[in-house]
């Protein structure tokens, strides 16, 4: 199944019932979290191996000849372990061009790719991941889905390294705290804008964002207000997974993450 | 020399037109600071963003925010003016400045200077009074305005504006005279 077929698969939900389950059956958020789950538990096939990369290879996502798959409007890209200026610049400009091509204004495309850059920076700065992290996107006409997943220490452990937040007891409390500007594992000023940028980009673009760390799941639908976010709990997962979707025009129907 | 305004082309200074994230901001900060410090103390430095295509909040906080935090502490004795700001990311800069509780002077497309970021009304009115008069002391402001503020109150306002890098000052006798930052395009000197 190639990338184009997977996009088609997403669009044609009726077909999924007759086809064995794969990551292609799922929304981008579910697919990414499924990959993370594959790496997280001893009974799973890809525990302890090359993390998300191995889990990805075992799915029915595009046949992988290299570490990155970029075909048409679907992209699965492994992040470099550390900050790489050229890589980030190339990914941002490619994604910006693609998003503009599917009907978003250049200004909106900049806001969205800016949000992606902020999350990727967060992964490099805070995740402390030992295996590669992943960026995936799926672009449809006037609709963009983007996910970034790491297998790092997660938000709770990251914030615990700052004595100011050592009293945080749960992943949910840590995740909610991390949504606020100025909250970071580092004490110095001018920090903690990453999530806020994402929330504002999503709220401005009739979108939704799902954040997953530990057992905590936090979803924002067209709002930056934590009081209007939906909190729920799931199986314990390592690292942080952020998936968001935006529309170029107002969307009356709920947006699938 | 002191009144000469220097232009720093940000894209040329840091080597890219896309400014993304804190890590990039941290690595670019020494380049920006180095370019600014090439100018003499007390000079006006114009940071030209006109060739920048995208910039994120974390980058702004790691560079502009950090530079502005250095000014009140006295470790950066320069007057910073930003310009060439695209409408696409002007709000993003204002948003970060709001959270950093610090204003900056922006050179607008119509050639005027304006405040970007937070500034209390009392200080904004004082800045307008200084701009209108060109060069003024606290005593002169007290004498010529209708506001019921004492001499010490004017001194406090003017000192705060100076600490924020929004007005210049020179000692005249026992008092300081304050004057607005001015931008004259013909005086720009490209330094990068």
List the helices and strands and how they pair.
The complex is a heterodimer of chains A (257) and B (192).
Chain A: H1 3-11, H2 13-16, H3 28-40, H4 51-58, E1 69-71, E2 74-78, H5 85-101, H6 106-127, E3 134-140, E4 143-149, H7 154-160, H8 171-178, H9 194-204, E5 208-221, E6 230-247
Antiparallel strand pairs in A: 1-2, 2-3, 3-4, 4-6, 5-6
Chain B: E1 5-9, H1 10-14, E2 18-19, H2 21-37, E3 44-48, E4 54-55, H3 57-70, E5 79-83, H4 87-100, E6 104-107, E7 113-116, H5 121-133, E8 136-137, H6 138-144, H7 151-163, E9 167-172, E10 175-180, E11 189-190
Parallel strand pairs in B: 1-3, 1-11, 2-4, 3-5, 5-6
Antiparallel strand pairs in B: 6-7, 8-10, 9-10
Helix pairs in contact in B: 2-3, 3-4, 5-7, 6-7
Polypeptide structure, described:
The complex is a heterodimer of chains A (257) and B (192). Chain A is α+β, with helices and mostly antiparallel strands and 257 residues long. Chain A has a domain of 178 residues: Histidine kinase-like ATPase, C-terminal domain (Heat Shock Protein 90, 2-Layer Sandwich). Helix content of chain A is 39%, strand content 21%. Chain A is globular. The N terminus of chain A is likely disordered. In chain B, the strands form three sheets. Chain B has a six-stranded mixed β-sheet. In chain B, strands 8-10-9 form a three-stranded antiparallel β-sheet. Chain B folds into two domains: 118 residues, Transcription Regulator spoIIAA (2-Layer Sandwich), CATH 3.30.750; 69 residues, Arc Repressor Mutant, subunit A, CATH 1.10.10.10. Chain B has seven helices and eleven strands. Helices cover 43% and strands 22% of the residues of chain B.
